[in-house]
Amino acid sequence: MSWSSPGGPGHSRGDGAVAAHAPAKVNVSLAVGPLRDDGFHTLHTVYLAVSLLDTVTVRPADRLSVTVTGEGADGPDPVPTDRRNLVWQAAELLAEHAGVAAGAAIEVHKTIPAAAGLAGGSADAAAALVALDALWGIHATRGDLTGLAARLGSDVPFGLAGGVALGTGHGEQLTPVLARRQWHWVLGIAEGGLSTPAVYAELDRLRAAGRLPDGTAAPESGPVLAALRSGPTAALAAALTNDLQAPAISLRPALRRALRAATGAGAAAALVSGSGPTVAALADDEDAALRLAAVLAGEGVFRTVRVVHGPVPGARLVG
Ligand code: ATP
């Protein structure tokens, strides 16, 4: 199957630019297995793609360059614009795979905050694969792109797939999940990010000290999958879990107050998204989400709040 856009080459702009966008994710369940001898953890997670999108625009050029605008472009720890940026690595990997020269001017417009537990860098990498595939006329199969995505990072295949999916292995082995409806969320975005490796290290430390239960190698995703199938917000609210929440709170104690603020303001439930520090607050419907966002914005607990819904599709070309 070819990974082509519905509009085909019509997506290319006048100056030869091609753009793709990709969504942030919330982990509605995230179980982290015990630390293995190879230093990794086995994950068992259910991803939900939400309507907070980054846009990656690529233009013909002789060599690679990356510019970043929007969330995280400035400040003390800006998103890198060199080879450390995942879109750069995506470009090199795709070019090598297809045997083409890695030349492109890549512009990343971020609305997904960096180091927020929303997999923004992974979304950008997925969008870059789709946009560069079109720019370079590669027509890679979806399977090929997914294989490249998994080499770039555990969350990148889900950035391509979108929707709702069960992720196992390191999170990169995906099984699509049936979801009957849209859910409405308020994302409470904190000042400053949290390093994902630091949160895992804190989880290991707390487990080794007996302050958190050990992870199980084969955890139970049944309740959250049933809730996603059956629909009522209360069922999903009751099934939300995240093993990284306690270590994220341990590193950033203000998160406890932020979670309480969300439930106190009427959220059906609230949890830390991935490794944090973003708080994902589940609302009963869109109106409730808008009301919740207004209350939370007024309380000033978060740097900013965003009203989103999901599931939404994964990386795709935009016209
Ligand atoms: P993870 O995907 O590890 O769970 P996250 O979702 O919390 O992390 P990201 O926004 O993906 O966080 O960024 C993590 C780090 O990756 C950043 O601090 C930054 O240094 C680096 N990075 C590389 N490429 C990008 C990118 N395109 N956007 C944001 N960060 C990037």
TrEMBL record:
Residue ranges of every copy of the GHMP kinase C-terminal domain listed in the record? 225-296
Where are the coiled-coil regions? none
InterPro entries, sorted: GHMP_kinase_C_dom, GHMP_kinase_C_sf, GHMP_kinase_N_dom, IspE, Ribosomal_Su5_D2-typ_SF, Ribsml_uS5_D2-typ_fold_subgr
Active-site residues (renumbered): 25, 155
Q: What is its EC number?
A: 2.7.1.148
What GO terms in the biological process aspect are recorded for it? isopentenyl diphosphate biosynthetic process, methylerythritol 4-phosphate pathway; terpenoid biosynthetic process
* Molecular function as annotated in GO: 4-(cytidine 5'-diphospho)-2-C-methyl-D-erythritol kinase activity; ATP binding
Q: In which pathway does it act?
A: Isoprenoid biosynthesis; isopentenyl diphosphate biosynthesis via DXP pathway; isopentenyl diphosphate from 1-deoxy-D-xylulose 5-phosphate: step 3/6
Work out whether the entry's keyword set contains Transferase.
Answer: yes
Name of this chain's protein = 4-diphosphocytidyl-2-C-methyl-D-erythritol kinase
The species is Geodermatophilus obscurus
Q: Which gene carries the instructions for this protein?
A: ispE
